[in-house]
Amino acid sequence: MSNLDRLAEDLRGACLGHAGAVEQLVWGHPVFKVAGKIFCGFERDDSALVVVTKLTRDEQALALADPDVSVAPYVGRHGWIATRIARRGELAKLRAFIARSHELVAPKARAQSASKTRPNARRARGATSGHAPRRARK
Q1: Distance between CA 85 and CA 90 in Å, rounded?
Q2: For the segment 13-28, what is each residue's pLDDT rounded down to a tens digit?
Q3: Is the pTM of this model over 0.85?
């Protein structure tokens, strides 16, 4: 098993260690999803893995100070970064990016009690109460 194979297995374990994470092949590359949404993916070239994760735009700007980090193609405008790693020791910095990406992509817990304690809370657009809509009076 090559160094990159071991690195890929370590990366796979880091991603699948997050709640609800599953691995799929998309576009010929392994990606990791939570609730059907990608939070990490990687591809391999001859000398390294290129790992793509989501951050906020502000976090992306800070991460770009690292010479191994670049704006991810196609989705970079949404905060996604591409991190190039070639050694297992570099996985430590990537774990924080993976955890943050999972946090941003995973479904947020819905506070059911909020609607019970705030009966006049406004409903989200498109939400219905189960009643027929009222007709406008002429």
Answers
A1: 6
A2: 999 999 999 999 998 9
A3: no
